[in-house]
């Protein structure tokens, strides 16, 4: 690690920042399109396919995947199993 | 009031059994909904339909929908299979059948089910089956989830995907504003061939059966919509099997709400019971912790007391010992002094 007190000469364009900035810029453009042109402008949803990947995967599968979190927090906070992990 | 354990367990058992068999007990009854009495419907006789698209034009006009890309007089549109969209509540499609020469036509729009799937899927109750027969939609409560579109077995509701802030679900209203004023639905009024008939559903069923009886070689002996999905307020007659004019024959006669009401009826119970159950478990685990802490404190206190008492006892013992030793020494000294005194006394006497 650097022991210099200042970070002034460090570049902000780290690989993480570049990728995150790219995602944010694209997301901003899509958000503007969504709220000016409606869902048709940013999705391929149609009357025959009213639910796309968003509900089909994110909601129906994502919530099920989150069940692990529900169970863990219930075990710790509701059932008080705070010291069951043996180290 | 005191509750015995036996009584309490009895209540719990009754509640559990009641919630388990509640819905099946209802389904076992001999009553089922067959539509509001005196409600209205439309009979579509596809044998009489000539595919002129005047119903489409009239629908567009009375519902103040946006103008189509191609005019309604353009019959080339019929060559492509279309469905209802947010801009067209009704479409006429052309079908070919091997058994008939010449094209067949069928008008597509909301069938206004007696027990609508869209209404049972909607969790904000934006859809309602009105007593006159129309299934109406209230855009002010709609959240745009499009559950109705997924639920509809006829794939009728359409969505305003190009509307950024207030997209609505769009479908035929059976011209609800017009029929409540005593007017005909726009499409029925426009039909030049009387392929569409508006009237009380009971009467239309009689008319449909009369036509089948009168012209048995012209019609298939079935009134589509009489019992499909529990019955619809839009009835169809056809000269060819209904599947050949693009109508689903695999729907069965069970109304859509019957398929889901059992599971959905449990939701309020889950919402009511789970918070209570989980809060109870939380309280129990909290109480357990509290009691454990109390017991620990008490044990520590007890141990400390014991040590203290032991020390005190030891001290007292030591003190007592010291006391007796001192007494003995005094006694001894006194005895010695007395003996000496007695000795000197004896010396003086002699």
Structure description:
- The complex is a heterodimer of chains A (87) and B (350).
- The mean pLDDT of chain A is 86.
- Chain A has 87 residues and is mainly α.
- Chain A is 57% helix and 0% strand.
- Chain A has helices at residues 15-37, 39-42, 53-59, 62-65, 67-78.
- Chain A contains 5 helices and no strands.
- Chain B has 8 helices and 9 strands.
- At the A-B interface, helix 1, helix 2 and helix 5 of A face strand 6 and helix 8 of B.
Radius of gyration of chain A: 22 Å
Structural class of chain B: mainly alpha
Order of helices and strands of chain A: HHHHH
Largest sheet of chain B, in brief, is:
3 strands, mixed
Quaternary structure type: heterodimer
Query: What percent of residues of chain B are in strands?
Result: 5-15%
Helix-strand topology string of chain B:
HEHEEHEEHEEHHEHEH
Helix content of chain A: 55-70%
Structural class of chain A: mainly alpha
Number of strands of chain B: 9
Largest sheet of chain A: none
- List low-confidence stretches of chain A: none
What shape does the CA trace of chain A take? Answer: flat
DSSP, total strands of chain A: 0
**Main β-sheet, spatial strand arrangement of chain B:** 8-1-9
Kindly state the mean pLDDT of chain B as a whole number? 91
Strand content of chain A: under 5%
Separation, N- and C-terminal Cα atoms of chain B: 103 Å
